[in-house]
Write a structure and sequence with these properties.
Elements (H helix, E strand, L loop, with lengths): L2 E2 L2 H5 L18 E3 L9 E5 L1 H7 L7 H7 L11 E3 L2 E4 L2 E5 L5 E8 L5 E7 L16 H17 L5 E14 L8 E12 L5 H9 L3 H15 L8 H25 L1 E2 L21 E2 L24 H20 L3 H26 L8 H14 L4 H8 L11 H5 L14 H18 L3 H11 L7 H12 L4 H10 L34
Antiparallel strand pairs: 1-7, 2-4, 3-9, 5-6, 7-8, 8-10, 9-10, 11-12
Helix pairs in contact: 4-15, 5-6, 5-8, 6-8, 7-8, 7-9, 8-9, 9-14, 10-13, 15-16
């Protein structure tokens, strides 16, 4: 029997009101709420590795399908929606909370590890504002796929256990252009040690509720950072420093694989340094630091690929402000925050050396990397394929003519016929410097590069193709894709279609190029 013992519920104050109506919730960390049943639950995807982690059956049962659809609870489950706030697109948004997520409980796994089991899309909560608390198939499938892809890529992330079709239709306006339509509904089961986020502490701090803030921080420190010591102002600073470090590492992992979150609000950054809340995310096709996958973010591109490290630092500043009432002085928090830039820079240098297969240190490595980014932006170049192809360029070709030297990279260019003149010369000049720096051992270099540069990533156009197949009653494509994504660094014969760059038809297609926050 699955064991539940939710420390969050047991340790923190609950909303005294139990009616499931939208309201401002004060003095509480969560509200008790029940999922709303659906008409015809059907299991579309079940992740055996996550099930094993939790001590659940290898294959889904009818009982678990019913539970993960929100139609039943198991003994020990105490479902709730968490209360938190956040800065959205740089502006304080006040109370937000779990508007379409309900945590069923904390599972005690066979190895005694603990995991929050959370449904996304199970119906309204007191934090749903004007929404219905539901999620559609397209966004739910995208969350499950990307959660698991990120795990196998080695990026800190929440996990996903299951995807259940509800049998109900959900009305959504995909592009916020007044053309709403009904789409099939679905529920994703998310799994994480905790879903506590920056905004968890921001909300009570903004309200001057020091008592609740203290309880939340003390719970987080003692539960997830026990090595830092008993709660105290010094421990809170150490806690913040660790969050700064984990966040800097996470940002460089996103940069490494070309992931763009799309909605890096403070309520969407994990206190544990995990990737959470997969909404309108995207993966770089052409290398472009200014690209954002979120149509809502288009005016200012606040959350564009190249801005993510700086936005994370800004979000950490907001977290520092929230912790200030417990620390009592600003300087220790400021000092910890100032360390972010150095950590990120060191992580970036280490990460890029692995992506390029460079051994040892060279004072000119940063210049080499900057010049690479300039070359990549001189013509539309697929980031994922470029690094994989670069690993195949032999050191012996360093003296080859420009066109022959650059030829192995042709598949990465979206318009290879444009790679001539200054563009060709720029790539060739960089390649010669790079090969001289990398040295003659092609085999060792390729091994390091292929372990850092994935071949298979969940590109948006692939996600859209799979979504359409599942909507048409063909889930086999989803199963195949999930299997391929379990080995993102290994070339898999017969699976070439999952490693191709974006086709031209997908360049501007909604869902294949950009998305909105609509789900």
């Amino acid at each position: 029997m699955t064991r539940f013992d939710d420390r969050f519920v047991r340790s923190l104050p609950a909303d005294p009101e139990t009616d499931n109506v939208v309201r401002q919730v004060r003095g509480a960390a969560y509200s008790k709420v029940q999922p709303t049943p659906v008409s015809k639950p059907t299991m579309l995807a079940w992740v055996p590795e996550v099930a094993a982690l939790l001590g659940l059956p290898e294959a889904p049962t009818d009982e678990w399908t019913t539970v993960l659809a929100g139609n039943a609870l198991l003994p020990g489950m105490a479902p709730y929606a968490a209360c938190y706030g956040g800065h959205q697109f740089g502006n304080w948004a006040g109370q937000l909370g779990d508007g379409r997520a309900i945590t069923l409980g904390e599972v005690i796994a066979p190895d005694d590890s603990r995991w929050d089991l959370q449904l996304k899309g199970p119906g309204p909560t007191p934090y749903s504002r004007r929404a219905d608390g539901r999620a559609v198939l397209r966004s739910s499938l995208r969350e499950l796929v990307c959660s698991e892809a990120m795990f196998h890529l080695g990026v800190p992330t929440t996990r996903a256990l299951a995807l259940v079709a509800t049998g109900d239709q959900v009305e959504r306006d995909l592009l916020y252009d007044g053309n709403a339509r009904f789409e099939p509904g679905a529920i994703t089961t998310r799994v994480a040690p905790s879903f506590i986020r920056f905004g968890t502490f921001e909300l009570p701090a903004s309200r001057g509720d020091k008592e609740l803030l203290q309880k939340l921080v003390d719970f987080t420190v003692t539960t997830f950072f026990p090595s830092l010591g008993a709660p105290s102002p010094e421990t809170y600073v150490a806690f913040f420093s660790e969050v700064v470090r984990r966040t800097a590492v996470l940002m460089m992992e996103w940069q490494r694989v070309g992931f763009v979150h799309g909605v890096m609000n403070t309520d969407n950054l994990s206190i544990l340094g995990l990737t959470i809340d997969y909404g309108p995310y995207g993966w770089l096709e052409g290398f472009d630091p200014g690209w954002t996958p979120n149509t809502t973010d288009l005016p200012g591109k606040r959350y564009a690929f190249g801005n993510q490290p700086q936005v994370a630092q800004w979000n950490l500043m907001c977290l520092a402000n929230a912790l200030f009432p417990l620390v009592g002085e600003a300087k220790p928090l400021e000092d910890a925050l100032e360390g972010y830039a150095d950590i990120a820079a060191a992580e970036q240098l280490s990460m890029m050396r692995k992506k390029l297969g460079l051994a040892g240190d060279d004072v000119k490595d940063r210049e080499l990397m900057r010049d690479l980014f300039r070359a990549l932006m001189s013509t539309e170049t697929d980031m994922t394929l470029f690094y994989r192809l670069l690993a195949r360029v032999p050191a012996a070709s360093v003296s080859a003519p420009d066109d022959a030297l650059v030829a192995p990279l042709a598949e990465a260019f979206y318009a290879p016929e444009q790679v001539k003149g200054d563009v060709l010369e720029g790539f060739a000049e960089w390649l010669r410097r790079y090969l001289q720096r990398a040295g003659p051992d092609d085999g060792s270099r390729a091994k390091v590069m292929n372990a850092s540069n994935p071949l298979y990533v969940p590109r948006n156009y692939l996600a859209q193709t799979v979504i359409q197949a599942v909507e048409q009653g063909e889930p086999s494509m989803l199963a195949e894709w999930l299997t391929v994504l379990k080995r993102p660094y290994v070339e898999q014969p017969g699976m070439e279609r999952w490693a191709k760059k974006r086709p031209e038809w997908a360049r501007h297609q909604p869902g294949s190029s950009m998305l909105s926050c609509s789900s």
